[in-house]
Amino acid sequence: MTPQASWTSAPGRISPKARRRVRAKGKTASEGQALTELPFGFWRFLLAKCYTVLWPGLAAGFPGAPDRARGTIERPVTRLHEFRNRLAHHERIWNQPLKDRYSDIVSLLGYIDDDLVDWVTAGCRVPAVLAACPIERPYP
Questions:
Q1: Which single residue of 24, 26, 98, 135 has CA 20 to 30 Å from 36?
Q2: Is the domain of 30 the same as that of 62?
Q3: In this structure, is residue 61 part of a structural domain?
Q4: Is residue 137 within 8 Å of residue 99, measured between CB atoms?
Q5: Is residue 16 part of a domain?
């Protein structure tokens, strides 16, 4: 890796699969484009305990977090990853704590930037849909 190259250019750093997905869309496999193609699992496991050495640098991406503990970010991301997998595999979610998962999303957005919270929640129908549900969730 040359001194001016990005960490994403180092061999094995960014998934060749992500770069192929970018090229399949007819785009140049730039650093930013490749990052957008990384799966949610990449980001979730990047926060795992085995990568604690990376945490000080990653923590800067969450300036609004209440503390700098890795678990503060990892716990909601892990819950959302598991929830996302339930959705992706067409499993039921009516027995999941939907309000809590929505809260995880809003919290994580706030850890990144308060403006993100405002932008996402301004047009979001999730709270209204959950409030209108006649059965309290989670339902066993």
A1: 98
A2: no
A3: yes
A4: yes
A5: yes
Q: Does position 134 have pLDDT exceeding 70, yes or no?
A: yes
Query: Residue 64 domain-assigned?
Result: yes
CA angle 57, 8, 21 (to 5 degrees): 125
Reported as type and span, the H/E element at residue 131 is helix 126-132
Per DSSP, the three-state class of 35 is helix
What pTM was estimated for this model as a whole? Answer: 0.79
- Evaluate whether residue 33 is within a structural domain: yes
**Which band of pLDDT confidence, cut at 50, 70 and 90, is reported for residue 24?**
confident
Is the dihedral angle over the CA atoms 128, 129, 134, 140 positive or is it negative?
Answer: negative
Task: Tell me how far CA of residue 70 lies from CA of 13, 46, 79, in angstroms.
Answer: 21, 11, 14
Per the structure, the count of domains in the chain is 2
Q: What is the mean pLDDT of residues 72-94?
A: 95
Owning domain of residue 95: 40-132
Q: How many C-beta atoms lie closer than 10 Å to residue 40's C-beta? A: 13
